Amino acid sequence: MASGELNPNHYPAQRAAKVVQHYLTAHYGSPYRLFGLQKVFSGNAQDTADSGRKYQLELLVHELISNATENCSAEVFFAKGEERTPAQVEVSCKELIKNNTLDQEEALFQQYKTNQSLLSAHDLPDRYGHMEPDTKPLWHLGIVASSFVMLNESTEDTLYNMAQVANITQLQSDDDVIKFESLVLLHDMVSQEIPRWKLLFTWSPSEGVKVLQMEQLPHCHECEKPLKTD
């Protein structure tokens, strides 16, 4: 791995920046707020003794639903060692995470809580990139929950994208949260593998998305690779 100043368009900087995207979506995402990367302006990587490598980044972050952008600074630390630990992320991106979507979230939460039947959807999006408009919040919730997995699994040698919510089902819950079970497909662009993860998570406007369980399923040779990834 190269040290010092990095080419912002090459893999080392892009991989570290992708981890920042997963961090923001996992911690601040919602059915009405998702984060993407628009551009990496600069990157620097340095070994920190024998403990790991620290990446310093300047990047343009895109909030995908409102279409707002902000210049942000971030540090990503990948620890070395036989026992892999999740990357540590610090990011300064103050305005985008203040974007208030609480009223929309409260309305959606009440809609989901008062539905006569529990929600269920599959193939979000389908293999042609389509989905029904009323399933988009479920797709977005799947992205937020999947970001916890991608943040946890990312290393200097991976580049994860969300591929598909294969299925998502609302579960019965008496708490002040809505509980979901979901099967999601990720895409590691480096290995071209499509790992499948089973997730159990909750969502409420006040608490956000909380992943209760995540389990990687065995590789499925018969599963078709989604044609489109974001």
From TrEMBL:
- Which positions fall inside the Cystatin LXN-type domain? 2-101, 120-225
Which SUPFAM superfamilies would you find in this protein's record? Cystatin/monellin (SSF54403)
**UniProt keyword terms in alphabetical order:** Protease inhibitor, Repeat
**In which domain of life is the source organism classified?**
Eukaryota
- Gene3D superfamilies, alphabetized: 3.10.450.10
Q: Which GO terms describe its cellular component?
A: extracellular space
Entry coiled-coil feature ranges: none
PROSITE patterns named among the record's database cross-references: CYSTATIN_LXN
Q: Tell me the Pfam families matching this sequence.
A: LXN
Record carries keyword Nucleotide-binding: no
Family under the similarity heading: Belongs to the protease inhibitor I47 (latexin) family.
Question: In its UniProt entry, what is this protein called?
Answer: Latexin Endogenous carboxypeptidase inhibitor
